[in-house]
Amino acid sequence: MAELETYITEHEDHFLEDLKGWLRIPSISTLPEHNIDVVRAAEYAVQQLERIGIEGAKLIPTNGHPLVYGEWLHAPGKPTLLIYGHYDVQPVDPVDLWETPPFEPTIRNGNIYCRGACDDKGQTMLVFKALETLMTVNGSLPVNVRVLVEGEEEAGGESIEAFVKAHPEHLQCDAAFICDTGMPAADIPALIYGLRGIIYTEVEVQGATRDLHSGSYGGVAPNPLHALAIIISRLKDADGHIHIPGLYDKLHKPTQAEKDFWEQDPLHINEALRDEMGVTQLSGELEYPPLQRIGARPTLEVHGISGGFTGEGAKTVIPAIAKAKISMRLPSELRPFEIIPLFERAVKDAAPAGVTVTIRSIHSGDGVLVSPDSAPIQAAATALKEVYGKDPIFTREGGSIPIAALFGEILHAPVVLMGFGLPDDNLHAPNEKYSLDQFFKGIRTVVRFLSILGQ
Amino acid sequence: MAELETYITEHEDHFLEDLKGWLRIPSISTLPEHNIDVVRAAEYAVQQLERIGIEGAKLIPTNGHPLVYGEWLHAPGKPTLLIYGHYDVQPVDPVDLWETPPFEPTIRNGNIYCRGACDDKGQTMLVFKALETLMTVNGSLPVNVRVLVEGEEEAGGESIEAFVKAHPEHLQCDAAFICDTGMPAADIPALIYGLRGIIYTEVEVQGATRDLHSGSYGGVAPNPLHALAIIISRLKDADGHIHIPGLYDKLHKPTQAEKDFWEQDPLHINEALRDEMGVTQLSGELEYPPLQRIGARPTLEVHGISGGFTGEGAKTVIPAIAKAKISMRLPSELRPFEIIPLFERAVKDAAPAGVTVTIRSIHSGDGVLVSPDSAPIQAAATALKEVYGKDPIFTREGGSIPIAALFGEILHAPVVLMGFGLPDDNLHAPNEKYSLDQFFKGIRTVVRFLSILGQ
Q1: Fewer Cβ close by (within 10 Å): the C or N end of chain B?
Q2: pLDDT digits (tens, 9 = 90+) for A264-314
Q3: Contacts of A285 in chain B (CB under 8 A)
Q4: Is the Cβ–Cβ distance between B61 and B163 less than 8 Å?
Q5: What is the pLDDT of residues B339-391, one digit of tens each?
Q6: Is the pLDDT of residue A243 over 90?
């Protein structure tokens, strides 16, 4: 282990340079004008894997953005670990709120700032660098490894889902490792045992067949923007309760241990969340503790509303059409295929008379709930304890990694959700960053995780 | 009158060419990038007035877009008429819905299509052409005339308001004539005796101090878009009722004659509105007749909502800030200065906990209600009857012309609201048009109106 530590310490600059090169590629998967950048980011990952000594590193074409795959299977008798990451990133708007350009990695105060610095190029790169450390120092890995990196995590992940379903034999493994989550604080290591699923939709409302003038038609015209406001306010009230009949019926009760953990809030999440958001009070279902609201309660959010006029000044238009992007986060027992019809019915029932409502599902993915007792998860816990000097907490996160559910369902493998992001990393927002200390600790932790797993 | 008729008939092409030249100038008053076009459109009006023989035609600088002024005061003993129009136009988005480019005047099926074809370059130009006809054929006008054309009608009209208030002596008149309204159908001439006032606001809601990820924060974060949906749905319900305490208390009861006219609906407005909007049922306060809802009831509309993500695909952002453009139309007894505080109070009361609401008034203007019995309005009625072969109806319109109220209040002049727009002219919408037949009948009507007024 001393030799491995030395290698890491001596190669910090080199690790960072390799990360910066990746970060500079604006691989925004949802914007077609970045399709070439997405491919360039995938090729960059292939080159990284080749240099490490991962074999057969290649792009796998899909109907969307390519997958990156590589393997090293020369540890007979040892378990096989499927390592997952994603090389695509979120859009950057509003771009004027970035302190430095979103695709120019910049180091300030011990952090690296860039879109993707954390989510998920930074976290994927630290796993690559753990593999590099082990391969370079030992000439081999302690376990068999398959690496699968996708380019559509921020765009619904359809291609990887299709690939996993079509080729489970290529991905045979004893455990999967996803490095795309966070920790509550820099001194509180964490393993995630639950993630929420997601449905992401666009609700379109049509009123008249053409835009109308509010002077001549105000009082008799349907207003699709007003109809959307009514629909949204009926779907979720001011107290965070979702009014979708049947939704809460399907929700499982948490265990007593979970309830105790949430209510005692030993991590002071309540205060931490207030600070992170810059608010004086939290919103949502105040009758549940914040950790439960984020990890184990379904939520519904509107992300944007288009239609009409939003420029400078005034235009008295009643638009013919307006659209809202609305998503739900779902604890694992609420399956998207069951919830989408309930959502659609509730939206249509909530619509006022005189408008036509169309609902389009943009993407969806199951949540996940795993047992903390399996050997791979215990190996990760031991590795975290060795690096951070304390036992990790086991917690649920509110985000969605649909592929985690799919690995469990199709590959029958326990999923280790261990990541090193911090709450103030500004995921999906301007000024995304990643702590350099977390990046290097992450490398050390993953080196140990693989070593323990191979013992 | 025969000579005047002949002049009009022989100069139709010339009249249209002069209109087209004006229409080609994209004088969008709300978009700063068109400021030069706005000045060009004003200069075009000055040249028109000079050619007619209107004296002292000039631009009057203001804090915003210039006013155009000219006068002809050589009819001693005759009344003085203040003629108003506006040379600015609405924005053109969504531009892809225009069948021909918005600033390339195109004649199809007896209509001229262009932004401003009706509102208000077409209607202002027909008044100029009536003046030209009288001046050219007779060498003089039958009444004294002051012409005042503004460039901020679509942008709040602050500059003309300031000018009228500061220089009422320059505008001294016996009546004002505004050619910026319409008729219910091409064979139903109309005089407007009521217009609604307007308040136009932007409501800004701030939640967290930064954009948030709905996975990590959904369930505890304030969502300004959701808060706006709740505010808007609380301000106006699905049945068109506005929930602003005190609003309806100030509303006057209509006369029995008005109620009878609205309820009998001799013009079949109900069906006409359905056809124009392409809907199967009207929206709003169904317990009132449509004409009353448009002309004599206050209404509230949301025109656009910004914040978050509305591009292609999916972004799971909870924005820090969202904004809505919201306006109200107000019968004349509901004065903006009294209603704005009620609106602001209602918006703040409707906001859910956890967000900060800021309300900005973009512009406002009083409504107007005039007596149909005054001499100038009766002269206009006679002129309409001579051209259209039937008595005009007297009706209220739902749109707002704040300057009409100001002329009444500051100049103590009765306001004649006579215009030739048709319901399908697509004001403020793609494919705005003006009927050529209405344009030429309008010229004939205004020639007669001035002649009768000068008798």
Answers
A1: C
A2: 998 888 898 999 899 999 999 999 999 999 999 999 999 999 999 999 888
A3: 219
A4: no
A5: 999 999 999 999 999 999 999 999 898 999 988 888 999 999 999 999 999 99
A6: yes
Rounded to two decimals, the pTM is 0.82
Q: Which of A28, A97, A203, A217 to mutate to test the interface with B (most CBs of B within 10 A)?
A: A217
Q: Which residues of B touch A223 (CB under 8 A)?
A: 283, 301-302
Residue A138 lies in a domain: yes
Cβ distance of B307 and A304 shorter than 8 Å = yes
Q: Are residues B171 and B231 in the same domain?
A: no
**A425 with A394, same domain?**
yes
Q: How far apart are CA A222 and CA B282, in angstroms?
A: 7
Cβ–Cβ gap B238/A230 under 8 Å: yes
Looking at A296, A330, A365, the residue that finishes a domain is A365
Q: Are residues B23 and B59 in the same domain?
A: yes
Domain CATH for A290: 3.30.70.360
Are B95 and B171 in contact, with CB atoms under 8 Å apart?
Answer: no
Question: Is the pLDDT assigned to residue B283 strictly greater than 90?
Answer: yes
Q: In B179-237, where do the E strands start and end?
A: 190-195, 197-206, 212-213
Report the complex ipTM.
Answer: 0.82
Q: 3-class SS at A58?
A: strand
- Asked if B229 and A228 come within 8 Å (Cβ–Cβ), the reply is yes
Helices (DSSP H) in A168-213: which residue ranges? none
Identify whether B115 is part of a domain. Answer: yes
Cβ-based contacts of B311 with chain A (< 8 Å):
30-31, 91, 93
- Are A329 and B214 in contact (CB < 8 Å)? yes
Domain count, chain A: 2
Residue A260 domain-assigned (yes or no): no
**Of the partner residues A90, A218, A329, the one whose CB lies closest to the CB of residue B329:** A218
CA-closest candidate to residue A25, choices A13, A43, A46: A43
Of the pLDDT bands very low, low, confident and very high (cuts 50, 70, 90), residue A29 is: very high
Asked if A354 lies within 8 A of B308 by C-beta distance, the reply is no
CB contact under 8 Å between B215 and A304, yes or no, is no
Residue A45 above 90 pLDDT? Answer: yes
Range of the domain at B62: 2-195+367-453
Angstroms from B99 CA to nearest CA on chain A: 13
Please, which pLDDT band fits residue A423 given cuts at 50, 70 and 90? confident
User: Across-strand partners of B197?
Assistant: B330
**Which residues in chain B touch residue A425, judged by CB atoms under 8 angstroms apart?**
none
Burial code (b: 16+ CB inside 10 Å, e: under 16) for A183-220 equals bbeeeebbbbbbbbbbbbbbbbbbbbebbbbbbbbbbb
Chain B closest-CA separation from residue A194 CA (Å): 12
Q: How far B139 CA sits from the closest chain A CA (Å)?
A: 39
The alpha carbons of chain A give a radius of gyration, in whole angstroms, of: 23
Per-residue pLDDT for B267 more than 90? no
Do A203 and A183 share a structural domain? no
Mean residue pLDDT of chain B comes to: 95
Asked if B273 lies within 8 A of A217 by C-beta distance, the reply is: yes
Asked if residue B428 has pLDDT above 90, the reply is: no
* Same domain assignment for residues B331 and B443: no
